[in-house]
Write a structure and sequence with these properties.
By secondary structure, the protein is of the alpha+beta class. Among the domains are: 257 residues, no CATH class; 110 residues, no CATH class. The strands form eleven sheets. The protein has a four-stranded antiparallel β-sheet, with helices on both faces. Strand 26 and strand 27 form a beta hairpin. This is LGFP repeat-containing protein.
Length: 748
């Protein structure tokens, strides 16, 4: 049984001449090995000098979670690791990668689960099976093999190195115990011994959670220093090698310190760090990530030590954070590095699970800055060192205008939510994105857009900067910005919305020619090549077809402001202006004013859409009233009020003297169907049916109307009144109405 007095269990780890056993260890980085996940990538051949010994902590050589983790490597991975360290063995020697032996049985006890011997087992298989049996990290055993006998990297190892592989049973002051001689016994014995140390039953001098004076060297004159032993694993290593490195040993790296230097625990820490990551934080570095890390110097390189455990994205890949870089490995793709300031910005926008998804390249320097591509976009590092991502549709838009070499330049901020979607600002403009489109706008347009109220005044952008006949423009859902030789002119707010509804510059209004202005009346207006738009407070309407006609009538202050949109019916046009309106039958026909009572009536009857259609002449005063001709009839205003007659009635009315004849003025609305029309006048009525157009006037007319006119039993007239046999008569569909000499009536 081992004593609880501190005594080294190894042969070589504290030799005063530093690291004689390590003379063959410092070799150039080369190919590597698959660890666990991810993939089957490799770690560097030999030992890359990467561990930062300025961070060495004698009280925490390795974390318990690392020391006792026996799941870090399987036999295949251990074998590949050995083969990555030695490509070719010197003739006549057996290197560790090729070593095999028959193994014995070992019974299970409280420290290990035993071992079932087998024939011709490889060194990798023995280490793997022992690690499972005794609950020790196989990486710990691998590192101990290197620090004790250089067996991992030795290309011409003598057989005695295998006999004393881990220095188990080989105290520094006495010969080795023959019971522990041989590779298998060294591996199994050392792993089991670590569990005995960890138990704390027989070995208590370096118990964790206490401060111990630990020597620098077997020579007592070299002195000691107090060390607070933080954990069980560190305690076990001090039982195995009861010395701490002095400053000279730490300053020497893998080299020689001074006469009081010891190297066992220094070398354990360095080797583990250089091959597998810092053992103190319990963070493993495996596979393809380890390959990249080691190729860049490991913990002592520019990437620094791992700061987080490897993260797995099921079915997609892996990532791991280091002090100065993050490594990403997508399944089937090369590993990529993400470094500051891209790293911080990439993390901020969600990393792999964000809109950028996986990195697809390392950073590329360009134009004093740089960029890094991702599946979902690109991260730019500006010349001033700030990094911003450009992703999704914004990225596509930025690319469409030649990215940083184009009209927008470098991104100068993150994308942010706008009122209608997303926006990202660049040195020379912005990308405005909504549910319908994504457009690049240069700064002159963006600055004006923002200064005048942005989305609230212009709505969503619907075009990029579009060249046109007078310069260029940008269209919005509720506005327009026009660039012309004299500068920028804008149309926004209610005026802008109407302008867009009218088709913008391609519509009847054409290009904007003046800025918006408020008239003394309080009305807002803006001029265009083909007209103007007015916001009266009661509505916003464009005047285009009648712009010249309105001006010829004294303008809106004199004639009236538009009170409705222009109505179009084929070639006909009509638009109301308060109590007045303007209309014309075709582009070549004259424009006529419809005003006063007739204008009011025409407007209330749906104007151009009524049976009257467009005016074909001005209103005229006659016999105490007003009339105005239209394509579909005539409008009237008299003491009887306003009304209109269709052409079928006005033709009969005109033949009978019009308003100055016996029929006089209409007293109400015409009744019109697809085949008939009727209307009552002050002196009778006019009735139009398939039989023709006839009047009913005088006494017969009064009686016919009293009976219900065409709705009476008589039906529609089929002739005008006649003087027959001394009596007035008139024929109807269902009889003849006769006015007797005494003024009475009969139907024959």
């Amino acid at each position: 049984m081992h004593s609880n007095i501190p005594a080294s269990r190894r042969l070589l780890s504290i030799l005063i001449v530093a690291c004689v056993a390590l003379g063959a260890l410092v070799t150039a980085p080369g190919a590597a090995v698959a660890a666990s996940v991810p993939g089957t990538s490799t770690v560097s051949t030999g030992i890359a000098k990467t561990a930062d010994l300025s961070t060495f902590t004698p009280g925490n050589l390795i974390a318990d979670s690392v020391f006792f983790d026996n799941s870090t490597m399987n036999a295949t991975q251990i074998d590949a690791f050995f083969r990555s360290k030695v490509k070719t063995c010197r003739s006549g020697y057996v290197c560790l990668k090729d070593y095999r032996q028959n193994t014995p049985n070992r019974p299970a006890d409280r420290y290990c689960d035993g071992y079932s011997g087998a024939g011709n087992e490889s060194a990798a298989t023995i280490i793997y099976r022992v690690s499972l049996s005794c609950g020790i990290n196989p990486r710990v055993l691998i590192v101990m093999l290197e620090k004790e006998q250089s067996l991992v990297t030795h290309t011409w190892p003598s057989s005695w190195r295998y006999d004393k592989a881990l220095g188990q049973g080989c105290p520094d002051t006495a010969p080795c115990d023959p019971a522990y001689s041989g590779f298998f016994y060294q591996i199994y014995g050392a792993a089991r011994q670590m569990q005995i140390y960890a138990e704390g039953r027989w070995f208590t001098y370096y118990a964790p959670g206490k401060t111990w004076n630990i020597r620098y060297h077997p020579n007592v004159a070299c002195g000691s220093a107090p060390v607070y032993v933080e954990n069980t694993a560190t305690s076990a290593l001090y039982y195995y090698t009861p010395y701490q490195p002095n400053r000279a040993a730490l300053n020497a790296g893998y080299g020689t310190g001074d006469s009081c230097s010891s190297y066992g625990n220094r070398n354990f820490f360095q080797l583990f760090t250089d091959w597998f990551g810092d053992p103190r934080n319990g963070i493993a570095v495996d596979g393809a990530i380890a390959e990249v890390w080691n190729a860049n110097g490991g913990s002592g390189g520019w990437m620094g030590p791992p700061v987080e455990a490897m993260r797995t994205y099921p079915g997609a890949g892996w990532s791991q954070a280091f002090a100065n870089a993050d490594v990403y490995v997508q399944i089937g793709k090369p590993a990529t590095l993400v470094t500051s300031p891209v790293r911080e910005e990439y993390r901020y926008v969600g990393g792999v699970t964000g809109g950028l998804s996986w990195p697809t390249t390392n950073r590329v320097p360009v134009a004093g800055g740089g960029y890094q591509d991702f599946i979902g976009g690109r991260m730019y590092v500006r010349p001033d060192g700030r990094a911003f991502s450009v992703s999704g549709q914004t990225y596509t838009t930025h690319e469409s205008v030649n990215n940083i070499s184009g009209i927008l330049g470098w991104p100068k901020g993150r994308a942010f939510r706008s009122a209608d979607g997303w926006r990202q600002d660049f040195d020379s403009g912005s990308v405005l994105q909504n549910s319908h489109t994504s457009v690049p706008l240069t700064s002159e347009f963006v600055n004006l857009h923002d200064r005048l109220g942005g989305y609230g005044q212009f709505g969503s952008a619907t075009s990029a900067v579009v060249p046109d006949s007078i310069g260029s423009h940008v269209a919005f859902t509720s506005g327009w910005i026009q660039k012309q030789p004299s500068g920028l002119i804008f149309v926004k707010g209610p005026l802008g919305k109407t302008y867009i509804q009218q088709g913008g510059a391609k519509g009847a209004l054409g290009h904007v020619t003046a800025g918006e202005q408020q008239l003394p009346s309080g009305v807002w207006t803006q001029g265009f090549a083909g007209g103007a738009i007015y916001d009266t407070g009661r509505g916003v309407y464009a005047v285009s077809s009648f712009a010249k006609d309105l001006a010829a009538r004294g303008g809106p202050d004199s004639f009236g402001y538009p009170s409705g949109a222009e109505v179009v019916d084929g070639n006909r046009r009509w638009q109301p202006f308060g109590s007045n309106s303007l209309g014309r039958a075709s582009a070549t026909a004259g424009t006529y004013t419809i005003k006063g009572a007739i204008g009011w009536y025409y407007t209330t009857k749906n104007g151009l859409k009524s049976f009257l259609k467009a005016p074909v002449g001005p209103e005229g005063y006659i016999a105490g009233g007003w009339t105005q001709p239209f394509e579909g009839g005539t409008a009237f205003y008299s003491d009887w009020g306003a009304s209109a007659s269709p052409t079928s009635i006005t033709s009969v009315h005109s033949k009978n003297g019009g308003v100055t004849g016996r029929l006089g003025w209409p007293t109400g609305e015409a009744s019109i169907t697809s085949t008939t029309a009727s209307q009552i006048f002050s002196g009778g009525g006019i009735f139009v049916s398939a039989a023709g157009g006839f009047t009913a006037k005088g006494g017969l007319g009064v009686e016919y109307i009293r009976r219900g006119a065409e709705k009476s039993a008589l039906g529609w007239p089929v002739g005008n009144e006649e003087w027959v046999a001394g009596l007035w008569t008139q024929r109807f569909q269902n009889g003849t109405l006769v006015m007797n000499a005494d003024g009475s009536f009969q139907v024959r």
